[in-house]
Amino acid sequence: MQFDQKRVLDGIDLDVVRGRILAIVGGSGSGKSTLLRLMAMLIQPTGGSIEVFGTDVARIDDAAALPLRKRIGVMFQNGGLFGDMNVLENVGVPLREHTRLDDETIDELAQLRIALVGLDPDAAAKFPSQLSGGMRKRASLARAMALDPEVLFLDEPTSGLDPISSDAIDELVLELKRSLGLTIVTVTHDMDSLWRIADRVALLANGRVAIEATMQDLAASTHPVAREFFGGARGRASLHAERR
Predict the structure, then answer these.
(1) CA–CA separation, 6 vs 168, rounded Å?
(2) What are the angstrom distances between the C-alpha of 37 and each of 67, 229, 231, 234?
(3) What is the pLDDT of residues 158-167, one digit of tens each?
(4) What mean pLDDT is predicted for residues 104-120?
(5) What CATH number labels 2-32+67-208?
(6) Phi, psi angles (nearest 5°) of residue 95
(7) Least confident of 1-15, 87-101, 223-237
(8) SS3 string of 106-137?
(9) pTM, whole model, 2 decimals?
(10) CB neighbours of residue 170 within 10 Å
(11) Which residues pair with 72 in a beta bridge?
(12) How wide is the angle at C-alpha 142 spanned by C-alphas 138 and 148, nearest 5°?
C-alpha cells in the first residue's frame, strides 16, 4: 500500500485462520490500521492481492465486493456511531441498508444484537453522547454484528477504556469467538489484551510482518523487533505479569 510517494506496507504475506483471533501489532505508523482496512475491503491496495473468502478483492468493484462485505463486520476505534441516531437506530443501519426487512423486524434483530454484546435494553434509546466509553464500544460491536458476520475486524477495541472495562471487552470478544465460531482480526496496543485473547500475533515493522507467532513464542523470541516490542515499560510489565 502506497500513499503518494510513501510505501506504508510492502511485501506483506499473512494468512488469517478461520475460528482464530489474529492480533496485528507494531509501533505507531507501522501500518496496522491500514492493513486492517485493506483486509476489511474499506480501501484498495496499490499492489499485490488480498483474498477474502477465496476471492481476490484487490481489484474488484463495489458491486462485486458487496456480497463479501455482508459477511464481515467492522468495529472502528472511535466507535463510528452516528451521533444523531440512538443505539437501536445505529445497530439497525446495516440491516436497513442490506436487507428488505420491515422496520419492526429490524428493531427486534437490533435489540438481540444489543443484548448479545451485554448492553441493557434501555441503552437502545440512548444516543452516543449519553454512553460511557465502554458502552460506545459495545454499541459499535453490536452494529458490527448486525448481519451475523463470519469475520470480525476490531480496531483498538480497548483503547481509552479503564482496566475493568477493557477486561470486559476482552471477555466479550472471547465469548463471541467461542459461541459463534467467529474469525477475528484485531489491531491493538493493549499488551494485557494480547496475552488474553490473541491466538496469533503479527508484529509489523518497516511495512512488513517482522514475525508472526503466539504471544508466548513472541516473548521468547530473540528477533530484534520482538525484543524492542517487549523492551518498553508496558511490554516488560505485561511479560512480568504473565510469568507470575
Answers:
(1) 38
(2) 17, 23, 28, 26
(3) 998 999 999 9
(4) 96
(5) 3.40.50.300
(6) -70, -40
(7) 223-237
(8) HHHHHHHHHHHCCCCHHHHHCCHHHCCHHHHH
(9) 0.91
(10) 20
(11) 151
(12) 145
SS3 content of the chain, % helix, strand, coil (to 5): 45, 15, 40
**Residue type at 180 in one-letter notation:** L
pLDDT score of 59: 85
DSSP string for residues in 177-219: HHHH--EEEEE---HHHHHHH-SEEEEEETTEEEEEE-HHHHH
The number of beta carbons lying within 10 Å of the beta carbon of residue 94 is: 21
Q: What is the pLDDT of residues 203-244, one digit of tens each?
A: 999 899 999 999 999 999 999 999 988 875 555 455 545 555
Q: Is 231 exposed, middle or buried (0-12, 13-18, 19+ CB in 10 A)?
A: exposed
Looking up cell 467467529 gives 182
CB contact at 8 A, 130 and 161: no
DSSP code of residue 215: H
What distance in Å separates the CA atoms of residue 197 and residue 186, rounded to the nearest whole number? Answer: 10
Beta-carbon contacts of residue 50 (< 8 Å; ≥ 6 apart)? 38, 39, 41, 56, 57, 58
Tell me the three cell numbers of residue 227. 525484543
Give CA–CA dist 233/134, Å, rounded: 25
Q: Name the DSSP letter for residue 85.
A: S
**Mean per-residue pLDDT over the chain, rounded:** 91
Element (H, E) at 25: strand 21-26
Give the per-residue pLDDT at 234.
54
Nine cell digits for residue 71 = 459477511
